[in-house]
């Protein structure tokens, strides 16, 4: 390679690297400029957002990066399984999972998907907001159902339930009957009461736990997120609490995507995860025969990590039969039907 050719090659590489950096910088700038948690509803399909990559700076934790980019504990952990939560190396690239399939429910009011540990708020025509949440831990499951917001309270006092006071007393750690507003109040500074007695959407004095199953049934949010909702959510807003550990949906470019989340412990024996996933995909196709990669679908269900994955065979892959693969059929004795309910 002579000097002239080398110079041209170097220039082309520099331009390519410059464009790549510009695109990456532009993507992060767009993510930063967009109001936190706000997305435009797609004209077609039901996939919003996109994943980005950020670089760990000195002193960062994955918890810090998750909170900055509107992601909860479990979501940031599952997206980066090989990165230390509390002490990632400086310079490490971290995936921010900010791409979501809208839940399969009417786009109205607030929708809370328990397995996903995420809240969706259809706040205005053409707009959806979404935020990470904590939900009830095993033994204190958040109930599924439709309710409404009622009273909004700023700087609420907290009355620990009698069962909690008894447990604490048994441990030799008695708690007061009422905890006044302040830094020790686990409700944080803002609370939105629900029509289900004793259940609230509220802040927290322990934001590191947002995105985990840690509450006694209430919905916890980052302080900045509940403050934003508190100011804008009208009393009487519908709240639809659902549990969809597997979601499928179309992107605007015609790609079928799916997301799979670890099911709630108390629901693990109540349904067959793979069959539920296949039925969900079938509903997305309607009466058409889905050209689905069933091996990929099974991996997604068996190893849920919340990341969006394409389920369609590509043109370069082997032709897909119009019926489920033998592997899937054998799982259910060859009698599987793709429901279109």
Automatic annotation (TrEMBL):
<feature type="region of interest" description="Disordered">
    <location>
        <begin position="155"/>
        <end position="182"/>
    </location>
</feature>
<feature type="compositionally biased region" description="Low complexity">
    <location>
        <begin position="316"/>
        <end position="330"/>
    </location>
</feature>
<feature type="region of interest" description="Disordered">
    <location>
        <begin position="316"/>
        <end position="341"/>
    </location>
</feature>
<keyword id="KW-0328">Glycosyltransferase</keyword>
<feature type="active site" description="Nucleophile">
    <location>
        <position position="218"/>
    </location>
</feature>
<keyword id="KW-0378">Hydrolase</keyword>
<comment type="similarity">
    <text>Belongs to the YkuD family.</text>
</comment>
<dbReference type="InterPro" id="IPR036779">
    <property type="entry name" value="LysM_dom_sf"/>
</dbReference>
<dbReference type="InterPro" id="IPR050979">
    <property type="entry name" value="LD-transpeptidase"/>
</dbReference>
<keyword id="KW-0133">Cell shape</keyword>
<keyword id="KW-0732">Signal</keyword>
<feature type="domain" description="LysM">
    <location>
        <begin position="52"/>
        <end position="96"/>
    </location>
</feature>
<feature type="signal peptide">
    <location>
        <begin position="1"/>
        <end position="29"/>
    </location>
</feature>
<keyword id="KW-0961">Cell wall biogenesis/degradation</keyword>
<dbReference type="InterPro" id="IPR005490">
    <property type="entry name" value="LD_TPept_cat_dom"/>
</dbReference>
<comment type="pathway">
    <text>Cell wall biogenesis; peptidoglycan biosynthesis.</text>
</comment>
<dbReference type="Pfam" id="PF03734">
    <property type="entry name" value="YkuD"/>
</dbReference>
<keyword id="KW-0808">Transferase</keyword>
<dbReference type="InterPro" id="IPR018392">
    <property type="entry name" value="LysM"/>
</dbReference>
<protein>
    <submittedName>
        <fullName>L,D-transpeptidase family protein</fullName>
    </submittedName>
</protein>
<feature type="active site" description="Proton donor/acceptor">
    <location>
        <position position="202"/>
    </location>
</feature>
<keyword id="KW-0573">Peptidoglycan synthesis</keyword>
<dbReference type="InterPro" id="IPR038063">
    <property type="entry name" value="Transpep_catalytic_dom"/>
</dbReference>
<feature type="domain" description="L,D-TPase catalytic">
    <location>
        <begin position="108"/>
        <end position="242"/>
    </location>
</feature>
């Amino acid at each position: 390679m002579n000097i002239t050719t080398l110079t041209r090659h170097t220039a082309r590489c520099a331009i390519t690297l410059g464009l790549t950096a510009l695109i990456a910088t532009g993507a992060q700038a767009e993510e930063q400029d967009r109001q936190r948690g706000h997305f435009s509803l797609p004209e077609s399909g039901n996939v919003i957002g996109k994943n980005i990559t950020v670089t760990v700076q000195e002193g960062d934790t994955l918890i810090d990066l998750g909170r900055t980019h509107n992601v909860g504990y479990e979501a940031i952990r599952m997206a980066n399984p090989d990165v230390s939560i509390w002490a990632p190396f400086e310079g490490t690239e971290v995936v921010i999972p900010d791409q979501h399939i809208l839940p399969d429910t009417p786009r109205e009011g607030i929708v809370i998907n328990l397995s996903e540990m995420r809240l969706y708020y259809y706040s205005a025509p053409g707009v959806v907001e979404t935020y990470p949440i904590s939900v009830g831990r095993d033994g204190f499951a958040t109930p599924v159902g439709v309710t409404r917001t009622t009273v909004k309270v700023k700087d609420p006092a907290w009355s620990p339930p009698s069962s909690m006071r008894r447990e604490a007393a048994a441990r030799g750690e008695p708690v007061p009957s009422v905890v006044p507003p302040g830094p020790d109040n686990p409700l944080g500074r803002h609370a939105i009461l629900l029509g289900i007695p004793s259940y609230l959407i509220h802040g927290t004095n322990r934001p590191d736990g947002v995105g985990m199953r840690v509450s006694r049934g209430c919905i916890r949010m980052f302080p900045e997120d509940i403050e934003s909702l508190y100011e804008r959510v009208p009393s009487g807003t519908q709240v639809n609490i659902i549990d969809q550990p597997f979601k499928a949906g179309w992107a605007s470019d015609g790609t079928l995507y799916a997301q799979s989340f670890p099911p709630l412990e108390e629901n693990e024996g109540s349904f067959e995860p793979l069959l539920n996933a296949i039925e969900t995909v079938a509903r997305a196709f309607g009466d058409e025969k889905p050209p689905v990669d069933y091996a990929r679908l099974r991996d997604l269900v068996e190893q849920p990590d919340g990341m969006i994955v394409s389920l369609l065979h590509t043109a370069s892959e082997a032709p897909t039969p119009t019926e489920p693969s033998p592997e899937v059929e054998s799982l259910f004795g060859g009698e599987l039907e793709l429901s279109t309910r």
